Amino acid sequence: xxxxxxxxxxxxxxxFKVDFKGYSPEQVDNMLDLILEDYGKMEENTQxxxxxxxxxxxxxxxxxxxxxxxxxKQKVFDLSNTTNYSSVDILKRISRLENQILKK
Length: 104
What we know:
Layout: H1 8-13, H2 25-103
């Protein structure tokens, strides 16, 4: 991000030389007051946005970590379910075979 040339304080403390055919000091001061006010608001908005960005980046990092954790738990769950279903299937087959043998 580019650094700004002036701060609100620098704008506020700026003084102009008055020449015989120069601008009205009152009009210049009024305009600079408006610029100063807008510049201050811009700095506040920029800081607020930077804080929001930092907060969202932290949330993204947290969610990525949660995703990794959930994916690893899902893999363990899938492996355990595969094993359990295989064991259940085997037990069902054995039961069917026993029933068939006993009926004969």
